[in-house]
């Protein structure tokens, strides 16, 4: 039988077993079903994976040629077949002396030159050499969406404890309320604006950029000294008013949701400084080295991906909760939501055939302990089993409030324990108190959140996504499904204000547009 067939057969056996009983039968289970890499400990022992299941999962890795596909990616082959592109975001965090080739050209000199230019620019901002019309730069506004927003925002929130430069603020949503709220407390004469759009054509980003430009100029700011861009189209940036030396580009081998390591991370570099940003890159590079060399059975990203494959594709648990017990990682669930669902939320394989075992899980989450008082009820007693992924630091950064962190640790460990053990009700009259238990969870533990540890966590998840996609035969590096809604939105845009635009294709959309136009007219200022 194929590994998939073996896993299907074993699921019927193992999922009838009480998870807590697996620890009774094997006192060494926790050590045998966990792995360490760099500064991370990944514990997947509180799942139904046993030796037999793990053997079949590792067979999947071998039979699907994951190691070979990994090597092709790292060597610069065009593994993004639908867009005919290489996938080399790992090159952004390579160390000096390494070489990485795309079409027989070593791309590392260009990458190192770009990083050197970014460091110089960030230092000039931080040291007051580059100034606004009103003096030193006091705040940075990053305008982008998707990968040009989620990565740097998540990282800035995560590393807020080491921000010693102008703090970053983020505008992504086209809803004008976001721009209004972000700009409300800022001085247009001392605010640096970074417009992050690879093509410099993204509708939401460019609309927000134009509005922020008007705000800055109306308030006495300087477009030439207070605007920069992360883009590959220097001419469009010049037409907007941004000087070429303020435009930082990157190659098409860097996908948007994998781009926080380079120019897209400029706001982060300004906030925490080039030295700490390099620590972030080094952490990612350490995980790259582990992923590239460790055997599958001891490879953290591989085992992380296989746990997800077991839960989603085999056990049919279609959602996954990301639960960081670290408030600074509060944007990590949203970041991983894009990374996983945009990468592997596909219905066809690379050769155009249907995906056989389902694709990306539904990713959602909230920091602990807030989530405990919101949705954990459903995790413990609901009818749908939702695998949980806990993240926990052994030590926080608030030494004067260390007892808070002790409570946080106790809560995190208690939740995974409770999901596993459950609780038997005392009698029929107390059936509402029962928790079924045997609900799977994993825990990722690290010493303390730092730029390096954050780099390791992100890189681990990137590689886990790659492994999952390789096993499913999916191209994890395109996102054609995102384009359809954009195309329809552009065709409808002219119909919002009047009925002269392209007619909607459905009666529902036509009815909704009629209602919106009527209400907009009724609420228009007289």
Describe this protein's structure.
The chain contains 20 helices and 15 strands. With 526 residues, it is α/β, with parallel strands linked by helices. α11 links the parallel β10 and β11. The longest helix is centred in the last third of the chain and has 22 residues. The chain is globular and about 70 Å long. The protein starts with a helix and ends with a helix.
Q: In terms of topology, how is this protein built?
A:
Elements: H1 3-14, H2 19-25, H3 29-32, E1 34-37, E2 40-43, H4 51-63, H5 66-74, E3 101-102, E4 105-106, H6 108-126, E5 131-132, E6 135-136, E7 139-143, H7 150-158, E8 168-171, H8 176-183, E9 191-196, H9 203-218, H10 223-226, E10 227-230, H11 234-240, E11 247-248, H12 266-272, H13 274-293, H14 300-314, E12 319-325, H15 332-344, E13 362-365, H16 376-381, E14 388-393, H17 402-421, E15 441-446, H18 451-472, H19 480-497, H20 507-523
Parallel strand pairs: 7-8, 7-9, 9-10, 10-11, 12-13, 12-14, 14-15
Antiparallel strand pairs: 1-2, 2-15, 3-4, 5-6
Helix pairs in contact: 1-4, 4-14, 6-12, 7-12, 7-15, 12-13, 13-18, 14-18, 15-18
Short description:
With 526 residues, the protein is of the alpha/beta class. It contains 20 helices and 15 strands.
């Amino acid at each position: 039988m194929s590994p998939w067939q073996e896993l299907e057969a074993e699921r019927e056996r193992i999922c009838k077993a009480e998870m807590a009983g697996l620890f009774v039968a094997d006192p060494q289970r926790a050590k045998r079903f966990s792995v360490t890499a760099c500064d991370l400990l990944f514990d997947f022992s509180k799942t139904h994976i046993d030796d037999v299941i793990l053997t079949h999962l590792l067979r999947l890795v071998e039979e699907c040629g994951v190691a070979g596909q990994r090597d092709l990616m790292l060597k610069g082959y065009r593994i993004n077949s639908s867009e005919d592109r290489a996938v080399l975001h790992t090159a952004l965090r390579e160390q000096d002396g390494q070489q990485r080739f795309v079409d027989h050209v070593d791309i590392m000199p260009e990458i190192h030159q770009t990083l050197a230019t970014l460091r110089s620019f960030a230092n000039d901002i931080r040291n007051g050499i580059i100034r606004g019309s009103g003096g030193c730069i006091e705040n940075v506004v990053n305008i982008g969406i998707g990968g040009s927003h989620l990565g740097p925002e998540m990282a800035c929130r995560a590393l807020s404890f080491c921000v010693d430069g102008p703090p970053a603020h983020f505008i992504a949503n086209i809803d004008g309320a976001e721009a209004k709220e972000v700009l409300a407390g800022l001085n247009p004469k001392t605010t640096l604006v970074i417009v992050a759009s690879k093509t410099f054509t993204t509708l939401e980003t460019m609309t927000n950029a134009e509005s922020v430009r008007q705000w800055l100029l109306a308030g006495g700011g300087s477009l030439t000294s207070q605007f920069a861009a992360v883009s590959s189209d220097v001419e469009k940036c010049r037409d907007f008013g941004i000087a070429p030396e303020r435009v930082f580009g990157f190659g098409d081998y860097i996908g948007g949701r994998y781009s926080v390591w380079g120019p897209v991370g400029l706001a982060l570099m300004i906030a925490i400084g080039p030295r700490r940003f390099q620590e972030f890159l080094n952490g990612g590079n350490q995980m790259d080295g582990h992923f590239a060399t460790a055997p599958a059975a001891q490879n953290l990203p591989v085992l992380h991906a296989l746990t997800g494959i077991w839960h989603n594709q085999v056990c049919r648990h279609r959602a996954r909760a990301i639960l960081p017990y670290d408030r600074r990682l509060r944007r990590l669930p949203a970041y991983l939501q894009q990374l996983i669902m945009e990468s592997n939320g596909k219905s066809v394989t690379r050769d155009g055939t249907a995906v056989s075992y389902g694709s990306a899980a539904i990713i959602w989450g909230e920091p602990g302990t807030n989530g405990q008082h919101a949705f954990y009820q459903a995790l413990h007693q609901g009818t749908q089993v939702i695998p949980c992924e806990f993240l926990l630091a052994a030590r926080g950064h608030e030494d004067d409030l260390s007892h808070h962190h002790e409570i946080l640790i106790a809560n995190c460990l208690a939740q995974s324990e409770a999901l596993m053990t459950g609780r038997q009700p005392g009698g029929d009259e107390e059936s509402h108190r029962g928790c079924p238990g045997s609900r799977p969870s994993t825990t990722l533990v690290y010493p303390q959140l730092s730029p390096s540890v954050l780099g390791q966590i992100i890189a681990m998840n990137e590689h886990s996504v790659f492994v999952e996609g390789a096993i499913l035969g999916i191209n994890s590096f395109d996102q054609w499904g995102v384009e359809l809604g954009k195309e329809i939105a552009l065709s409808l845009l002219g119909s919002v204000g009047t009925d002269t635009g392209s007619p909607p294709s459905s009666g529902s959309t036509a009815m909704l547009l009629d209602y919106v136009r009527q209400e907009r007219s009724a609420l228009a200022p007289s």
